[in-house]
């Protein structure tokens, strides 16, 4: 027994277990969620102290750095400049201002993103990195309160939910007979949120005056226009802020509750809702009566919102295609002659396909001097992202779209190789797509889509 070897590694220390900031925040969120779920009248009144803790601010910075790192605010301070000076000093400065209650939000830099329709632009508000970090910290602390309340019919900007789940729900509703669809389009939703009504909804779960004061600062922060002038903000939430998606969901949750109320008009008319952020579908088994349509308009008016009458429409899924979140729902006959039934086919819309073509054209046109290896790497990045979004197991059917994309990509690669010189890549130019897949590890989109679509679970 003296010479028997033990299985204990002497290099292991008996020090305390180190818990990551991400895990600490998740444990706190889970506790808060369970408390709010069990008690519908629970209100949080002491979250400000948790906001000022080191772990909260460190995790907020990490998440902002990972997901909201694009663009600089009105102070022109970038992540590189912060990290060069020291992240610790940056977070200590924020912590001190929060502890002393001297924190003041900066103006929001407005950027106009061009829309498909010429002459129009979407307003995007970019807060400073300092404001983004504090917004993320507040979002992490208050989000569980409303996650306990949000309806299952809401899918946008929520943990473990997304466009795939929304598309599945739409298809399930169609198969359940809800084929009469009210396809709504809200006009400038993020710019139309009423601050007073939003704070009434916020106080249903939150009474911490410190947190409410921060939310009020961000909502009323002036907007720095592209021409350098400052514009006061009296309504709306800047689209681009970290906290804005959560606030927008809280505001439209009031509409979700009306539709899902078992004793309400929508339930009596057997109407269901599928909502992704400000895009929502009302799906019924029969025609939408004038009473229901006027009721929808009254609700929107009371909330201070307006419907885009040009894009809002009524349709039946067996008579016309339904477009939602980049997908197209259409009725197609069975491939077998003996089967006279029609089935719901879900595929990427023509608009989504055109957007992919535009990205491919821009990628290949601007990089004619690149080597094949670099182009393949960029193409794989683009194609994998596109296929991951549109390939939904047991829901979408994208084989026809894949064939068209392959032909288009083959032609674009041929043009790109030819532009490098008459004698350049002469052999590869014969079948550019197939050769790059075979010799340069270009993504085989048909094989990848088959694996994604036929997967048992995603």
What amount of the residues lies in strands? 5-15%
Q: How many β-strand runs?
A: 11
Oligomerization category of the chains in this entry: single chain
Query: What is the mean pLDDT?
Result: 89
Uncertain ranges? 4-15
Shape: globular
Number of helices: 17
The SSE order reads: HHHHHEEHHEHHEEHHEEHEEEEHHHHH
Architecture overview:
By secondary structure, the chain is α+β, with helices and mostly antiparallel strands. 47% of the residues lie in helices and 12% in strands. The chain is built from 17 helices and eleven strands. The protein has helices spanning 21-38, 48-51, 54-67, 79-85, 87-99, 129-147, 163-175, 195-202, 209-219, 244-260, 265-268, 290-302, 350-365, 372-390, 399-419, 432-439, 445-453; strands at residues 108-114, 121-126, 180-185, 223-224, 230-231, 271-276, 279-284, 313-316, 322-324, 327-333, 342-348. A hairpin with a 2-residue loop joins strand 9 (322-324) and strand 10. Helix 8 packs across helix 10.
């Amino acid at each position: 027994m003296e010479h028997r070897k033990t299985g204990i590694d002497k290099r292991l220390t008996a020090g305390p277990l180190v818990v990551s900031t991400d895990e600490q925040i998740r444990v706190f969120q889970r506790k808060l969620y369970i408390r709010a779920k069990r008690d519908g009248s629970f209100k949080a009144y002491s979250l400000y102290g948790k906001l000022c803790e080191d772990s909260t601010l460190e995790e907020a910075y990490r998440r902002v750095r990972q997901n909201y790192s694009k663009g600089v605010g009105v102070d022109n301070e970038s992540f590189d400049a912060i990290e060069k000076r020291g992240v610790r000093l940056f977070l200590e400065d924020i912590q001190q201002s929060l502890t002393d209650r001297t924190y003041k939000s900066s103006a929001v830099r407005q950027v106009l993103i061009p829309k498909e329709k010429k002459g129009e632009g979407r307003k995007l508000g970019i807060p400073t990195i300092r404001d983004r970090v504090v917004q993320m910290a507040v979002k992490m602390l208050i989000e569980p309160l409303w996650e306990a309340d949000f309806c299952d019919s809401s899918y946008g900007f929520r943990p473990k939910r997304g466009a795939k789940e929304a598309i599945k729900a739409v298809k399930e509703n169609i198969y359940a007979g809800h084929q009469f669809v009210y396809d709504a389009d809200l006009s400038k939703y993020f710019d139309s949120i009423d601050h007073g009504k939003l704070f009434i909804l916020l106080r249903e779960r939150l009474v911490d005056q410190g947190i409410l004061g921060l939310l009020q600062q961000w909502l009323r922060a002036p907007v720095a226009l592209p021409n350098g002038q400052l514009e006061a903000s009296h309504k709306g939430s800047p689209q681009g802020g970290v906290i804005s998606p959560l606030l927008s969901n809280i505001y439209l949750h009031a509409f979700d509750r009306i539709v899902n109320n078992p004793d309400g008009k929508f339930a009596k008319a057997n109407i269901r809702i599928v909502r992704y952020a400000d895009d929502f579908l009302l799906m019924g088994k029969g025609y939408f009566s004038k009473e229901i349509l006027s009721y929808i308009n009254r609700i929107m008016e009371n909330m201070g919102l307006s419907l885009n009458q040009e894009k809002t429409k009524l349709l039946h899924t067996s008579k016309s295609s339904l477009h939602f979140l980049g997908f197209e729902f259409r009725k197609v006959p069975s491939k077998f002659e003996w089967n006279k039934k029609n089935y719901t086919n879900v595929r990427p819309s023509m608009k989504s396909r055109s957007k992919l073509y535009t990205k491919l054209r821009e990628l290949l046109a601007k990089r004619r001097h690149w080597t094949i290896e670099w182009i393949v790497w960029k193409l794989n990045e683009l194609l994998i992202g596109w296929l991951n979004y549109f390939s939904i197991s047991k829901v979408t059917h994208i084989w026809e779209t894949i064939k068209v994309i392959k032909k288009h990509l083959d032609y674009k690669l041929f043009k790109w190789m030819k532009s490098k010189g008459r004698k350049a890549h002469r052999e590869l130019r014969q079948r550019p797509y197939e050769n790059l897949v075979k010799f340069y590890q270009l993504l085989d989109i048909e094989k990848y889509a088959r694996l994604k679509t036929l997967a048992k679970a995603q």
